[in-house]
Amino acid sequence: MLPLEARRWRHIEAHVHAILRSFAYEEVQLPLLEFTELFARGVGEATDIVEKEMYTLADRDGDSLSLRPEGTASCVRALQEHGLLYNQTQRVFYSGPMFRYEKPQKGRYRQFYQIGAEAFGFDGPDVDAELIVMGAQFWQALGISERVYLEINTLGSGGAREAYRQALVDFLTPLAAELDEDSQRRLHTNPMRILDSKNEHTQSLLVDAPRLPDFVDADSQRHFTELRSLLDDFDVAYRINPNLVRGLDYYTHTVFEWLTDDLGAQGAVCAGGRYNGLVERLGGKATAAAGFAMGLDRVALLHEVVHQNAPSEAVDVYLCYGGEALMSAAQQAGVRLRAELSKQAAEPLKLRVHMGGGSFKKQLKRANASGAKWAILLGAEELNNNELTLKNLVDGSQQTLSEAALLMQLLQPNN
Ligand code: ATP
Ligand code: MG
């Protein structure tokens, strides 16, 4: 990750983390390696990830370990192991690299980066809506909301899910020979994933297949209707896509995906849903759970479509001082101002104090070269009066102010 790209990533990550924190989600940090067994159980034997995408190795004891292909299983494992799921609620997020052995192409890498959020102990549609609304806020904050759209679906739960699965298998079995190779295999392991197939012929066979919405149970239907009405209240637009599935037994009710048409085949930038069956499957007590994982690589590509230049890392404020005797006072003013600025914003203005002395004229040249919009001048007179001079480097205007008044100027929204 070279500097320009890293800069864009940090920018995205800072916004996303700030929004997650504003919803009072707390960070957890998870290991890169786990026992392979965790993913086999927690992601599912019959998934692409476990069947063919994991980086698996034997350690010196012969234990099978895998580089994490995703974060949810680890997250459940960690909270479970430390007694943080039983009889309580949790809202957490994680971020970091994930590893999958895939065919690398634009937006699809073998090491990629996810930011994920998970909420435990809430079974209502309000938390599903919260997770979706957070996503909408990410795109808004990053200026890419015009480029992404939301698809949602409900998978139902319990017997209804099972009945649908069976109906799908009954429908597809006579057509098995015509299915693509992956789908033929899934017919026996994970039939609902066939709905996800990217093969055109398989998709054409599915046109007359039984439809998931016709099977969904009344409870799920109610959950879904409430979620939709909440999304309407929040003005979050969506499409219902009855073929959107996460084909694993422990997914229940809501599934959703944020998609874009700007990245070719790699259209999903964020995917999530409710997985009320997972905690129990990993050895815990049945616990309601919902979450999502956002693919930062794809979000960064999309960000670049909209904002060609990486976000500026230029200095915002350049502090100059009149002569060696004021050097220490200037440094101290810099420390005080930065402390105040960083209280006010997730991405505070960047303030540099001039180093190396020289005349104001020379220092102002440096200030201009740094890209700063503002220069602050500290001369003997300012020091005596407990003031600073703020110079707007764009229009040349300047005023001498108290430190508090100067901060007010710097913090005006359009600065
Ligand atoms: P896809 O259908 O694109 O393979 P997926 O269903 O495997 O996606 P999830 O496991 O739901 O993806 O992961 C959540 C998000 O992580 C995806 O929506 C995507 O943005 C991102 N992602 C998944 N795999 C990769 C990858 N190999 N490279 C880059 N981003 C990825
Ligand atoms: Mg995949």
Descriptive report:
- The chain has 415 residues and is of the alpha+beta class.
- The chain folds into two domains: 3-157 and 217-306, Bira Bifunctional Protein, Domain 2 (BirA Bifunctional Protein, domain 2), CATH 3.30.930.10; 317-410, Anticodon-binding domain (Rossmann fold, 3-Layer(aba) Sandwich), CATH 3.40.50.800.
- It is 40% helix and 21% strand.
- β9 and β10 (268-274) form a beta hairpin.
- Bound molecules: adenosine-5'-triphosphate (ATP) and magnesium ion (MG).
- Adenosine-5'-triphosphate is lined by residues 70, 100, 102, 107-109, 112, 114, 266, 268-271, 293, 295, 297-298.
- Adenosine-5'-triphosphate binds next to β6, β10, β11 and α11.
Which range best describes the helical content: under 10%, 10-25%, 25-40%, 40-55%, 55-70% or over 70%? 25-40%
Stretches where pLDDT is under 50 for at least 5 consecutive residues are none
> What gyration radius follows from the Cα positions, in whole Å?
27 Å
Overall pLDDT: 94
Strand order of the largest sheet: 1-5-6-11-10-9-7-8
Superfamily (CATH H level) name of the largest domain: Bira Bifunctional Protein, Domain 2
Shape: elongated
The bound ligands are: adenosine-5'-triphosphate, magnesium ion
CATH class annotation of the largest domain? Alpha Beta
Strand content: 15-25%
Total number of helical segments? 15
CATH architecture of the largest domain: 2-Layer Sandwich
Largest sheet descriptor: 8 strands, mixed
CATH topology of the largest domain: BirA Bifunctional Protein, domain 2
| N→C terminal distance | 30 Å
- Please identify the structural class as seen in this structure: alpha+beta
Q: How many strands?
A: 16
